[in-house]
Amino acid sequence: MLTLTEKAATEIRNLIAQPEVPDDGGVRIASNPEGSLTLALAGSPSAGDAVVDDDGARVFVEQQAGQLLDDKTLDAGCRWRRHRPVRHRRAGLRLALTLPVRPGRSASRRAPGP
């Protein structure tokens, strides 16, 4: 099952605390036809979604995405370039999936920010 770091849980709680997000809302992770994952605020889980709830930080994981994320950890952070944070057009959550390290590969892969 997907797990959350404390930082990711805090950022997700901040996102879903927005007035336009329903009380039972969360962040939904789904796969798309191109084979990548998408992140979006959702009012409720879709049929078949697994629900990860870490003290109110709710993540709805679509079944196909869940197969990819089963043993992964979701983290939140900011990319740095030349000692300055990268600014995005929309303030929000930048998520990283921590993956097992394979020789010659990076330890994490980043999901696109909102």
Describe the structure.
The protein has one domain: Hypothetical Protein Aq_1857, Chain: A (Sandwich), CATH 2.60.300. The strands form 3 sheets. Strands 1-6-9-10 form a 4-stranded mixed β-sheet. A 4-stranded mixed β-sheet has the order 3-2-5-4. A two-stranded antiparallel ribbon has the order 7-8. The radius of gyration is 14 Å and the shape is globular. With 114 residues, it is of the alpha+beta class. β4 and β5 form a beta hairpin.
List the defining traits of the structure above.
globular; disordered C terminus; single chain; 34% strand; alpha+beta; 4-stranded mixed β-sheet; Hypothetical Protein Aq_1857, Chain: A; 2 helices; 114 residues
Briefly summarize what is shown.
The protein has 114 residues and is an alpha+beta fold. It has 2 helices and 10 strands; from the N terminus they run βαββββαβββββ.
